[in-house]
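[Meeting: bench + compute handoff]

Bench side (C.D.) handed over the final construct sequence. Compute side (W.E.) agreed to return the predicted structure before the next meeting so the bench team could plan truncations. Sequence as handed over:
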Amino acid sequence: MSNFSKVHEFLMHEQNLHARIADYYRELQAQASNEQVKMLLQLLAKHEDTLSTSLLDYIERASPKVLETFIQFERENNVEYLFNSEFEQGQISCDDVEVIAQRIDQYFSDLYQDMFEAIECDMVQTLFENLRQHMEQEKKRLSTDINSMKDM
């Protein structure tokens, strides 16, 4: 491993990725023709906006010592596969959206778990464990919201 960055830089990178994913969902929503798919994509965009804001909150509340800590972690530089789709964007189905959302959620879940395991500093490790737990809570909330939407 040869990539070093401060915790703050790493978190800002991930916060920007959540914001980019929210925009991606909004783009798909604008192109979708099915109303249920549009509502699902709107819900997912809101979910990503929430996660983006949460990361900013973590950055704001974290101690400067934690944020300025250098970490060595081989971050995946190419995340474009998260945005790959095998469907015509205007013809996206709820199943297609679910595949995309699961791929994205799994990426972040794995990332924070890997960070927790790779970091040796207890304070930084705790931060990433808290982030992973927060992601899991948000996934549960999203799942509840999606199930409620399906009942409509």
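W.E. noted at the follow-up: Helices lie at 7-31, 35-61, 64-67, 94-118, 122-150. C.D. will use this when planning the next construct.
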